[in-house]
Amino acid sequence: MLDERWVFYDNVEPEDQGNGVVRRVLAYSKDLMCVENTFEKGAVGALHHHPHTQITYVVSGKFEFEIDGVKKVVKAGDTMLKTDSVEHGCVCLEKGVLLDIFNPMREDFV
Fold first, then answer.
1. Is the predicted pLDDT of residue 1 greater than 90, yes or no?
2. What is the Cα–Cα distance from 23 to 98, expressed in whole angstroms?
3. 74 close to 80: Cβ distance less than 8 angstroms
4. Overall domain count for the chain
5. Which domain holds residue 79?
6. CB 36 within 8 A of CB 29
7. 81 domain residue, yes or no
8. Quick check: helix, strand or coil at residue 9?
9. What is the arithmetic mean of pLDDT over 41-48?
10. What is the pLDDT of residues 55-73, one digit of tens each?
11. What is the Cβ-side half-sphere exposure of residue 102, based on CA atoms within 13 angstroms?
């Protein structure tokens, strides 16, 4: 779907990431990528880091995020900035959806 102008949700195959997490890679170019992650309560986004700047928008649910050693609880409408190589991860406290924007795109997701 690289550089597709229109990406319809119903045409995007969900990718089961295991342990209660489902990923959908939405619109993207080489410079920018939009990804939806659906979490079941208790699902964990393990601590990790990558050479991409990432903004996460909480669409729904409640999560405990750890970013660079600091933990905070976030809910629908909250956003987080994770600059390149900063360690981050989360635990889903209430079933929810996160929307991630990456710069540049995550080649490992396609």
1. no
2. 10
3. yes
4. 1
5. 9-109
6. no
7. yes
8. helix
9. 97
10. 999 999 999 999 999 999 9
11. 23
* Cβ neighbours, 10 Å, residue 25: 20
Angle at the Cα of 36 from the Cα atoms of 65 and 79, rounded to 5 degrees: 40
For residue 76, what pLDDT is reported?
Answer: 98
Cα separation, 29 vs 16, whole angstroms: 23
Is-contact 109 25, C-beta < 8 A?
A: yes
Q: Is residue 22 part of a domain?
A: yes
Q: Is there a domain that residue 57 lies in?
A: yes
Token couple for 43: 């699902």
Does residue 56 contact residue 72 with C-beta atoms inside 8 Å?
no
Cβ-contact 28, 105 below 8 angstroms: yes
4 within some domain: no
Strands 15-18 and 21-28, how do they pair? antiparallel
